[in-house]
Amino acid sequence: MRPGLAGEKGSQSNRQTDQGGGHSTEGKQYWLGRPDRYSAKRTAKPVQFMLLAPYAKEVYLMGDFNNWDPRSIPMQRQPDGGWRVEVTLPHGHHRYLFVVDGEPVLDPRAYGVVRDAEGRRYSLIAVS
Length: 128
Description:
single chain, mainly beta, Immunoglobulin-like, five-stranded antiparallel β-sheet, three-stranded antiparallel β-sheet, disordered N terminus
């Protein structure tokens, strides 16, 4: 086996403790390499956000992925009156809102709606 692969018997120099990514079975130590090497937590995917708001003058996207900045992600008007933007997001659940002419708006097509400690509602999307 090549170095760093799961199941390979580690040498004295690359052995790890159970906390550091190694695995011990029956007194033998096996090097697992970086356990999160292919983890979904390290992936990012392009996500399309769309909102139908034909009378809006401007629409932005804000969320936990841009520190709730209401003007950092402008959306593009489409010929049908919709608004669209593509954002690359990491794996996980993300809270967000649209900002339509300065007012926060929930996404009617969201995966779900969550509330924070103060009871404010946010749209939810899951990226995997």
